[in-house]
Design goal:
Length: 1168
Amino acid sequence: MSEAATSDLRDAFTQIHEEIREEGSEFDFRFSLVDHLFTDALGWSRTEGEGHVNFEDDRKDVLCFDDSDPPFPVVVCETKRPSHDLALEDVDQLETYMSGVGSAEYGVLTNGHEFRLYEYRPDERAVRSIDSFEIEDIATADELGAELRESLDELDVLRQDRFVNIGDAEYFRKRVREVPVQYQPGTDDEGYELFVDAVKDSLDELSDVMMEFFDDYRDRPEGSYPHDFLETTYPDWQDWREYTGKSDDAKKTFCRETAYIVLNRALFARIAEDKEIVGNTRLSGRGMAESVERGDERPYLEALMDTYDRIDDHYGDLYELGIFDWWWVSRDKRNRFSSEEKRRQAKLEDELDYTLGVVLKRINRFDFEYVNRDILGHVYEDYLPKQERKELGEYYTPIEVIRFMLDSTGYRPTEGIGQQKILDPACGSGGFLTEACDRLIQHYLNKFGKTSIHRLDAEEARTILERAQENIYGIDINPFAVHITQINLLFRTVDLYDKVTEKDPHYTMDGFEIHVADTLSPTVREKQEGSTGSDSQQAQIQQFADYNGRAQAFIEDRNEVDRIKDEMEFEVVVANPPYVKTQNITGPKEEYAERYSSIDSKSFDIYVPFIERGLDWVSARGSLSYICPNRVQTHEYAEDIRELLTEEPITHLIDFKDVEVFDAATPYPSIFTVDHESDSDDEVKCARFAEERDGVLEEIYHLDEWETPSDVSEYDLFTYSKERMRRDNEDDHLPSWKPMPDEERQVFDAIVEGGDARLGDITNSVFQGLITGWNKVFVGEVVGEADDEGVVQFLREGGDEPEPVDEKLLRRLLKGSEIDHWGADWEGLWLLFPYEVEDGDAELLTRETLQEDYPDTWAFFKNHEDELKGREGGKWEDVDQWWAFGRSQNLAKMEPDKIMTNIMSDYNRFSVDTEGKYYFIGGGNAGGYGVDLMEEYAPSSEDHLYYAALLNSSVLEFWHKHIAPIFGGKYYSYNKRYLEPHPISLPENSPDEEILESAREIKATREQITDLEYKTSDVRNYLSDYNRSAAVLDLAQSIDLSDDDYRQGPIRKDVKMDVQTTEKVYQVVMKRGHHLEFDDERVRDFVFEMLTAQDRRLTRSEVLNMEVPSSADVVELMDEYHGDEERIAELEEQFDELRRALDETILREAYGLDLEGEEVVDEFLEVW
């Protein structure tokens, strides 16, 4: 070491010695150490990526990093507080740290007095002492003796310049397999985290390069091989995505999936290399170094493709070029390029080669020898977060659900599953199949009497591996999903493969039976037997099959699936099929409709034919378990599949209701299981969930009896007759399954028996609300009063400024949520209604009528003509009467007598409108529905109250919640399908006068509440009875307002104590330090309400000069205001009492339920 370097080190230790204090903290000492030794003397930077030192890490005291990307730790320094004496356990701690880091060559242990230097030996996973000395000896020596000088010389290995600017070839040789990739839950593992970070960065960079390839290929002319192949594969990929989830940016997702596959293949090759399943590849170490030194044109890209060829001999399915290798152009295709296209291709491949160099250097440093299936599973979860896995096509099924479903089919390690074939026909990322693989492995471990894979001999491992390849089947239409499944199964079996190749190095895997195909498409044989049309799916790819091996492999995979469909049966079929409405896909719907008897309408969900196809695959002694939307129990399009299922031995029906099973919003799943070996021919084990409960499925599965435990409130367990399910589905009024406990079914049936008709029998129609097609124009608020011409200022929902329209064309509007039982809480919305209703018909006002009779409204429409013509993707561009609503149904049904309800609610809320006072909107799961009763059942307007009373009762709420679909927050659908079946007890068979009288009183009470709530919602509603002869300035006792701009947000009320008089002083605080003070709380409250009612910024003058009544009148006004608030509370209590009494009458006398029935209704509604 040079004299200058030795002097720098001595100066550093001298300064550290001078600054050290026995009572000082470890952090203070660490700061001195980094500042003087590592930064000043050893040259470490404070800038990340330049060979930097970090001493702010919570787990490692001081870490020095090299300049690689990402930076790797190369020196670990463990510091202790100065008062701590170094001991053996401190050395052990340093050794543990360095073992976890893996890439660090040297370690330091010091307390500011003693300084120890260690070398890390990765083969032994241990540290060896190099030297130690006392810092005081260095700092206080007049001259350094030979021993102390030698100690300082040893520190030369810690200099920063030894770890930066290393050439590529030397890097691959020197920095190879340093960091063991391990995973220990609950522990800090620097190596594992470094690996996850490296993989994340690599995926991002490869994705960017693939985007460059994509854009360049798309820009090339037709006839160019890369352009044509991409144009062939990419549209089909988009079609496949429709089955497995759409992406906001399809191109980005396609390129990211491509990058993911490139990275996965490289990682698996490294794993196989480090486990010595294959010989050394060119992707790491000496092989890569020699490629770089030879000066190969693109050493990293060539090494990658060479590795593909080598690993292909061991696991062909993963490395066979396929659809996601669209970016690769073989030599023979490249030779056909023009000189310009060769130049473009070379530029792209140079960029990819550079990026691959960065990626391969990163993973060069990791040692995968100890990687097992658990580690790889965690890596996958950590470097691809759940949201991105969903974006890339993975549909996450929780492991608890997977285990319950496999348990319910009998696919358990303790059963005879060794030769059972299991299929997931919508395998996605392989959640079911990887768990099945784990169970198959455990089954054979039990059979062979071994506690782990590592205790198996090679022949036993080979038996398990081959059984897994022979018996585990998966199909998915998305090639990327299939790749993920293959990777996951490889991760699960890599230890078995490792064990087999120890004895037979030339052993190769046949591959798992995981295939890319449309599970639902008819096979060639089915087409010949039926009348389906030609095979249009992937027709473009077929054109490439003759001269493109990637496309040919895809076609062959699909043909293999045809054989699986035509010839095979399975002991177990499990799936979480796609939830996609057919109107959202462009697939071969007509072929599906002809192939599957369960499809009986143009609109169906794709999971329905998946169920039918799965049933076709189940063997005579097999089982099936699906998780799919619980709409399968209730929806009209699922009627035929319900009929098919009731012919099968259903054993379980688990309805999660609105309890979240997945992380994101889902279509409310349910699980059903079919078991051909079931002992029970008729009873179905049912469960329904009211709330979340950890570990609930495992808990349920292990119960001795299928009964709800006495201490459980989150779910109900009961059995339900399969014959009753069949009869439910044949119900003339509502074909659906209606599983419920026996005591509830008895009440449910009693309600039906107590009814004389169904709601649908006594109505002209149950109708949906209006659909304007563009509420931003047709819906808004009125600002101010109408002028003498009947014109008002209309602030549309999509506007910033009010515009004049004709008041005559406005109607009060409800959006649905305002409709409550016995009334509506109108929120001031108006509908611009350009129609004339006469004799039950609605006619759109003509252009001439609008121009002549309603010129302001016509001007309004003209102002927004472009918006209205642009509706529905421009559909209205060429329509002459473009100011019409988007849909014309039910326009004339708003003004006649009607009962209204909100389409989505957590309780029955029916309101009578006998004045045509309200219009309401509808569509989808928003808005409202109306009930138009036949005149013979409701001769007068008031008769509607009787039926509203029944519909609002707890009896029909109980009944409704057993037939209607549930949504989040225990909201139920109140649309036509689920309203019309309601059993109605007609007036002649009920105490109709008593019910009517109670209904009148309830309605009147509700109207009083509504009127008072409106009045108290704005204190200005009281001003008309008082003379506004004063200003706020006159009401206030003191004023401290020195600004001229007061926003609404900070305005608040406060109270303080006058220290001299001990009287309370009531304040309106405009903002900090700005306030008005009053001696009467009521006056303060009035001023506060007046100011906040302005809903805009106020100047000082506007605040002080606001016109108000006198102080005495304000007190009187506020007493009236508070009196109205108290009256509301009284009326609400009266309203509830009247409802309870009416409810009792309806329950007992209209429907004939007894006390026991009433208890069943009450207990159910407490939860639901």
